[in-house]
Design brief:
With about 1300 residues, the protein is α/β, with parallel strands linked by helices. Helix content is about 50%, strand content about 15%. It has an eight-stranded mixed β-sheet with strand order 36-35-34-33-30-37-38-39, sandwiched between helices. A seven-stranded mixed β-sheet has the order 8-10-9-13-14-15-16, sandwiched between helices. Helix 53 (about 1245-1260) runs antiparallel to helix 54 (about 1265-1304). The protein is globular. GO terms for molecular function: ATP binding; magnesium chelatase activity. One of its GO terms (biological process) is chlorophyll biosynthetic process. Keywords: ATP-binding, Chlorophyll biosynthesis, Ligase, Nucleotide-binding, Photosynthesis. It comes from Guillardia theta (strain CCMP2712).
Length: about 1300
């Protein structure tokens, strides 16, 4: 077992030196003294089992010693990559080849081509393409023409006899058949039956595992197919049960039932009756092979007072073990009440468990094979786990990846899918890698990491203890957010009305028996109490303030924090923040031993509500997010350690923490991108706390960080109802004038034309200029066409959707909102009916879907229930994240633990088709603007959120531009991107600068590797450079001195483990002088290339080359809720990228940006300015949107404020500076007295930011405000600034007065 201090040393242990074709790890086994003529070669290739390499070598040694003339070669899947010539040499002269667990597409193709020459071929548990190579005499698994690959009909018929009536159990029936089949087939005559029996017999040896069984398998193969005579015949298979239980205190014994095990355990170890019982699913093969880590895991659990129930399974039958061998008081109660169906296979020897831990990964139903049918199998797993209603953890050693790569780069590729993506579909929480493969003298051995075991056991006990702690005694911490600081963000979250939602939750908790003290009636008053405490901690007024402390304001001394962090982490924090814990300058009063860190917070009974601390300093508020070696500042660390530590240790002693809304910063702290270690700050600060995270259902991307890095059990909430933009003010007038023009008797009237042109705007120079333009258009017969275009534009604008207001947690839609949801789905969503399909059946289907969606939306109340279930330590059912328009009822009801998708399934067929269409349209758009010239390079942004929700539409755009298509293997996995021949493509291949978000980079590493492989092959393709711009640019880079790897790099992102371009932080903080600063910031942050051979190699020269040839940037917008003007990330990436490229190309403005609205029915790219105009008119400047948002109180005011900041960002990056946007923004929000008063009253800081951004736009030359408007804005700004300062002073005076009264 590895301790934290030893881990790096073990990970980097030296490998064997002097390796040649046969030295180093021994692969060839034979008797060199054998002089006979009969020789027989067996080649074994075992994938995913590097840890069993030594076992197979021992078995080979045994078999060779027993069987003269037998030669055995033992390889792993790693050898298929690193030792191909040696593998090929061995296979060329093989008599039998045996392969297991080979899935990699390149390895499968390479191996399949070579083993087809071998007479006898056994392939088990691998890709269907490779398994189809199986041939044993007359028995073959080759697919028949026109039929799917898989088992021959005769085998399927036999299998059906061994399976239960449940479809999900058929794979378990397969393993039973393998066990009993050989004996049955002895009595069936004929060669086919004999060969089938040989196939089954071989697998029986292999499946049983262990040195003796594998040695007997080798001898059996030599005897059956080579005629060799072993010194002793191959023994019968040494059987072990398919499922059973083990314990290190009784080695070699397999308990048949959980009841037998538990009775033995409690007799053997009395006094452990009060320990929580954890069912631990183990690989049967690992148990049979006696891998040491299993005993270590079991023993560790016992040292932490957890009663282990180590239950081994084959891998395909995890659901059977949980369903039939494990139960819970909840399940028994539900069965007695008749509220869940009776489980006819529930064993009478099933025992109660408090938690289930899988060390397998993969889906619960079917294991590795279950991943082929994810959605259907996940539903079955959900039903099983809901019946047990206990937490379901995944904690496993890495079987594909070694410890060194995990610690250095994080978990990626197939290992991340096995450990995270697939189990999350079932509702797994708190995934913890326990260790992995180690190198050196113990090559291939699985080693566990002591502190990861500690993390697992701590989390299990904390979750289980929730249910055993009375609700009235549970201490709950609720964390709100306040970023960016100083602009009214405190107590806000995207799409959620935080004050009202929090008030509802606390009220519901009170009904359930939680101690929440006395709540104010007004939700905004509740939030104001929390804001005051946070302000007091920020200003230092909370120091030695009795009133602050009485309300629940927390204080932590630097000495106390040092004790909580320990010496190592204290040194790390101190080093980055001034040399000691008292020198950060952030919410810290005093120095040395007397220094105090103020945390804020208000105590409502036993519920502490506080604002998450800022990450950095004023002027650098997000410093922490963007430096991988940084640490949280001392006060941030103290905040979370205070939550974690018990009351007797001067902490709050939270039983559970609730992060309220989307999203906080804790999960973004420095550390490995995926696979927390003890050095990762999310793990250090919240690793021991059950974390309930309220999150918007439509964001399954960023929520992955909360789930995986922050250990968040997600509780989804719905998005606000949709609304149509409609037309207002001058837009309504314009529509009327157009109608008048069309209906007029004299359509060529110059006067009517002038009215239309005046209202449409866009013509400077006064009435005379408008009159000249009208005359010209009438004379040239252009006016009719112009009005038609205006009419179409107004129709598009009128029907444009937006999110109306904010959602309240647990609120079902009222009648008007329900109608809005349904209209949006049927008119704009995935529901689509052509005129030919308007049949009665389709109408009935629409009614059924509408009723289903209505009923599911009415279950929004389950959002509150979901939070309460999590607070009670119960199983929260999973559901896919997404949005109603695209996914319909598939994302409902909310209140669920949302997950993403299997990354090996993108792009989907639909996403590929839409992406390809968008690519061709993007090329056409460029050619239209550039004299019919093809673009050499187009940049495409790949974002995790868009990829998940569209199933990879942006990936489809990249493939469409390059001229490639996905290769999908029989299981449905996308395994390669193949180049389409140029003659079929019919145009040049366009080079693609692929810019990744940090979440895409970390969550879709398999796609990154496939794209990298595609770009390399395209660069090396034997094609003319003028028909392959990827090749052209690669050759130019090589001629300039770049390496081949650098010349083919096309995938860029932020440095490993870091997130964001920093551009939005600079814009928000006003920390930039020139627009070029923002472009350069983007380029510096995104100069790191990613691919198969390197993750995060800085390659600025390659990036510059690609930027210098880019003519267009393509951005997919995945939902109505997050448009270009709604969030900062679009201008910080797409806008800043355009700025960087235009500056590099001399500032000529040739680089265009286009937007593909992926939620629309047609993936037509639109120019970015066109979309910005549509968005401003339909949302920010639309009274309908403005009123619905501002009516939401402080949160709505902040949403308006955020969009004003984004307006500055777009002006700075893409030079979108159209005066009417600023004019109307000022008129709508600052100069309208009623609106201004609403904003001032609900959120003065947000109102200050709104007015301040308008003044900034004027000062930076984006807008030339009229003198009277400018003066009004300056006066309003000064007034609100004074009011905020007076409010702060008044609060200070109130605090002093209260303190003086208390002293008297």
């Amino acid at each position: 077992m590895c301790e934290r201090s030893q881990l790096q040393e073990i990970a980097e242990a030296p490998t064997h030196k002097g390796a040649s074709s046969e030295t180093g790890p021994k692969r060839k086994f034979w008797d060199p003294t054998y002089a006979g003529e009969e020789k027989f070669r067996v080649v074994l290739i075992a994938g995913f089992e590097t840890f069993n390499r030594q076992l197979y070598r021992m078995a080979a040694e045994k078999a060779v010693a027993r069987c003269p003339g037998l030669e055995i070669w033992v390889f792993t899947d790693q050898d298929l990559q690193s030792q191909q010539p040696l593998v090929e040499q061995a296979v060329d002269e093989a008599n039998v080849v045996f392969a297991s667990l080979i899935f990699d597409f390149e390895q499968v193709n390479w191996l399949r081509e070579r083993i087809l020459r071998v007479p006898v071929r056994f392939v088990f548990e691998s890709s269907l393409e490779l398994m189809s190579s199986t041939k044993v005499g007359s028995f073959s698994m080759a697919s028949q023409p026109g039929k799917k690959q898989g088992m021959p009909p005769a085998v399927k018929s036999l299998l059906s006899k061994f399976s239960s009536t449940r479809e999900e159990d058929r794979l378990d029936g397969y393993t039973k058949f393998l066990k009993s089949g050989p004996a049955l087939l002895k009595f069936i005559p004929g060669e086919k039956a004999k060969d089938l029996r040989r196939w089954l017999q071989t697998y029986s040896y292999w499946n049983a595992g262990g040195v003796d069984n594998v040695a007997n398998m080798f001898c059996s193969l030599a005897s059956e197919f080579g005629g060799l005579q072993p010194g002793s015949p191959a023994a019968e298979v040494i059987e072990a049960p398919q499922r059973g239980l083990v314990h290190p205190a009784r080695p070699g014994y397999y308990f048949k039932t959980p009841r037998e095990y538990l009775d033995w355990y409690r007799a053997k170890f009395p006094g452990r009756e009060s320990w929580p019982v954890a069912g631990i699913l183990l690989y049967r093969k690992h148990v049979i092979s006696a891998l040491p880590y299993i005993d270590e895991l079991v023993t560790h659990m016992e040292t932490k007072e957890i009663l282990p129930l180590p239950l081994f399974i084959t891998g395909v039958d995890g659901h059977i073990a949980v369903r039939d061998f494990l139960t819970s008081p909840h399940e028994q109660e539900q069965l007695r009440a008749g509220t869940i169906p009776v489980n006819p296979t529930l064993s009478p020897d099933a025992v109660n468990v408090d938690a289930v831990i899988s060390t397998i990964g993969f889906p619960l139903v079917g294991g590795p094979a279950g991943s082929m049918e994810g959605a259907r199998q996940a539903e079955i797993a959900k039903e099983i786990l809901q019946a047990k209603n206990v937490p379901y953890f995944v904690a496993a050693p890495l079987l594909i990846q070694d410890v060194k790569s995990w610690f250095g780069q994080g978990i990626g590729g197939l290992q991340s899918v096995v450990l995270y993506s697939l189990p999350e579909l079932d509702g797994a929480i708190d995934t913890i890698p326990l260790g992995g493969l180690c190198c050196g003298d113990k090559d291939g051995e699985i080693r566990l990491v002591e502190e990861r075991l500690d993390r697992l056991s701590t989390r299990i006990k904390r979750w289980v203890s929730l249910r055993s702690t009375p609700k009235s005694e549970r201490r709950v911490a609720v964390v709100l957010y306040g970023y960016p600081p100083g602009i009214g963000a405190t107590g806000t979250a995207a799409l959620l009305n935080v004050p009202t939602s929090l008030h509802k939750l606390l009220s519901k908790m009170k009904e359930e028996g939680y101690d929440v003290g006395e709540l104010p009636e007004d939700p905004e008053e509740l939030l104001q109490m929390v804001k005051v405490a946070d302000d007091e901690s920020d200003s230092g007024r909370g120091y030695a303030n009795a009133q602050y402390a009485q309300r629940g304001g927390a204080t932590v001394s630097t000495d106390q924090l040092e004790t909580w962090l320990g010496s190592s982490d204290t040194q790390r924090v101190s080093k980055n923040w001034g040399g000691s814990l008292d020198r950060s300058g952030i919410r810290t009063v005093g120095s040395g031993e007397r220094a105090q860190m103020l945390l804020g917070g208000v105590l409502f009974g036993k519920v502490w509500v506080a604002v998450q601390p800022p990450l950095g300093l004023p002027g650098d508020p997000m410093r922490l997010l963007f430096e991988r070696d940084m640490t949280p500042h001392p006060q941030y660390s103290a905040f979370y350690k205070f939550l974690e530590r018990k009351e007797e240790d001067n902490g709050f002693g939270a039983n559970v923490v609730v992060h309220f809304g989307m999203h906080g910063t804790e999960e973004w702290l420095p550390g490995t991108s995926l696979g927390n270690t003890g050095e990762c700050w999310p793990d250090i600060l919240t690793g021991s706390l059950p974390n309930v995270y309220v999150y918007a259902a439509n964001n399954p991307s960023e929520s992955l960080l909360a789930k995986r890095r922050g250990y968040g059990t997600l509780i989804s909430h719905n998005v606000p109802p949709y609304s149509r933009a409609g037309l207002y003010k001058e837009l309504q007038t314009l529509r009327g004038l157009i109608a008048d023009y069309f209906e007029g008797l004299s359509r060529e009237s110059r006067g009517a034309a002038m009215k239309v042109l005046e209202e449409a705007g866009g013509i400077d120079g006064g009435e005379e200029a408008v009159e000249r333009c009208a005359a010209y258009m009438v004379r040239e017969n252009m006016m009719m066409e112009y009005c038609e275009r205006l009419k179409a534009y107004l129709a598009e604008l009128e029907q444009r959707l937006f999110s109306s207001g904010l959602h309240v947690l647990g609120d079902p839609p009222v009648e008007q909102a329900m109608e809005a949801y349904l209209r949006a789905y049927f008119e704009d969503g995935s529901w689509e009916v052509t005129s030919k399909e308007r049949t009665w059946d389709r109408f009935q289907e629409a009614v059924r879907q509408g009723c289903s969606i209505r009923d599911l939306l009415l279950r929004n109340t389950e959002e509150l229930e979901g939070v309460l279930k999590a607070l009670n330590g119960e199983f929260v059912p999973p559901a896919p994240g997404g949005d109603l328009l695209r996914d319909g009822s598939g994302v409902l009801p909310t209140g669920r633990n949302i997950h993403a998708l299997d990354p090996y399934r993108i792009p989907s067929k639909v996403a590929m088709a839409r992406g390809k269409a968008a690519a061709e349209l993007s090329i056409s758009l460029h050619r239209k603007d550039n004299n019919d010239e093809f673009p050499e390079t187009i940049a495409v942004n790949l974002w995790g959120l868009e990829a998940i929700k569209t199933r990879g539409e942006s990936v489809g755009i990249v493939l469409g531009l390059v001229g490639a298509e996905p290769v999908v293997e029989a299981t449905g996995r996308v395994v390669r991107f193949d180049l389409i021949p140029l003659e079929k493509l019919g145009r040049p291949r366009v080079d693609v600068l692929t810019s990744l978000s940090g979440i895409f980079r970390d969550s879709f590493s398999n796609v990154v590797e496939l794209l990298d492989d595609l770009f390399e092959r395209a660069a090396k393709a034997d094609e003319p450079a003028d028909m392959n711009f990827i090749r052209k640019h690669a050759l130019e880079l090589q001629a300039a001195g770049e390496t081949v790897e650098a010349s083919t790099a096309r995938i860029f992102s932020n440095p490993p483990g870091e997130f964001g371009s920093l551009v939005n932080e600079r814009v928000t903080d006003g920390n930039w002088e020139d627009e070029a600063d923002l472009g350069e910031t983007w380029a510096k942050r995104n100069a790191f290339s990613f691919g198969r051979s390197g993750r995060g190699v800085e390659r600025r020269s390659t990036l510059n080359k690609l930027m210098s040839t880019t003519g267009q940037v393509v951005q997919c917008v995945d939902s109505v809720e997050y448009g270009l003007t709604d969030i900062q990330e679009y201008y910080a990436n797409t806008g800043a990228m355009v700025r960087a490229m235009d500056d590099l190309q001399g500032g000529k403005g040739k680089v265009q940006a286009s937007v593909v609205e992926s939620y629309s029915k047609v993936p037509r790219p639109k120019r970015i300015n066109e979309v910005l105009r549509l968005e401003y008119r339909s949302k920010l400047l639309n009274p309908k949107w403005a009123n619905s948002m501002v009516d939401q109180g402080s949160g709505g005011a902040f949403e308006v404020s955020q969009r004003m900041t984004a307006m500055i960002g777009w002006g700075a990056t893409t030079k979108f500076k159209e005066p009417w946007v600023f004019d109307q923004s000022a008129a709508t929000y600052a100069l309208d007295p009623v609106m201004a008063q609403k904003l001032r009253d609900s959120n003065p800081e947000a109102f200050k930011n709104i007015v301040g951004r308008l003044l900034e736009a004027n000062n930076r030359g984006m807008w030339e405000a009229k003198p009277d408007v400018l003066q009004q804005l300056q006066e309003i700004y000064e007034d609100i600034d004074d009011a905020i300062e007076l409010g702060t002073a008044a609060q200070r005076l109130s605090d002093i007065t209260m303190q003086q009264k208390e002293k008297r």
